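Hi support team,

I'm filing this because I wasn't sure whether my run with Isopentenyl phosphate finished correctly. The job status page said complete, but I'd like someone to confirm that the output block is well-formed before I use it downstream. Pasting the exact inputs I used:
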Amino acid sequence: MTTVLKLGGSVVTDKETPETVDDDALDRVVDSIADADVPELVLVHGAGSFGHHHADKHGVTPTEGSHDADGVWAIHDSMRRLNDEVVGRLQDAGVSALPVHPLSAGARDADATLSLPTASTATMLSEGFVPVLHGDVIAQSGAGATIISGDELVTHLARALDADRVGLCSTVPGVYDESGEVVPRITRFEDVANALGGSDSTDVTGGMAAKIRALLDLGAPASVFGPDASRGSSPGGRSGPSSRADFQLTSPGRPAPRPTRDRSVPGRRGRRPPRPTRPRR
Ligand code: IP8
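And here is everything the job wrote out:
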């Protein structure tokens, strides 16, 4: 069973402070992933306070490209450093995580159609690794380089790997309707269009509305859930995103228990000593 799980940038970073990891939130989400021990797991993380500020500064969006190598590098470099943190912490928690950088692997054609070979991701999965991709910049024919969001990666990977389920872990427990209730199931974008606002922080890739559009295009059951969602089977079927989680994740505000790691489980390693803080460039 292949699972594609996105960790929203707002979950793992402090979105209001440039280039700041939310240490507690990231550690707890990482511990929850290690404890859930989901087989054939692909992770994708968003940009949060890393890529979006640089993308904004350099005027790069999913549709507006740039030929300025310095700017493209600044965006990619910030995402690479965030990815280093996520992969490093997963490894520290005993998860066999490895990085996959979209800039080095994929491209868009002049019509913005994405080509992202998934042989490396699929092989990592079959070898017991947990590939960790991230929102990034990507070369686009005729436009230089444009942004690719984590959500676009999620839908691309879910299709290419024929994923059995998809999860988006966000800071909110799902999609709210206009009276503030979480919508249990969404089958048409029009039903939630009025209720969906834009993201309130710098976010060049469209916030929740874009996520829901992308998930509705998918064939696999999809869930949008907050980091304190409880374990349960998705009721989403093939009819659209639901708001219940298939994954045990713990609220960033609530410390997760740290059980002894089972070193005999394939794909997991014993916890390593804490690594020194990475120097910022
Ligand atoms: O946070 C955006 O990814 P997202 C990627 O998943 C960049 O929308 C580099 C801004």
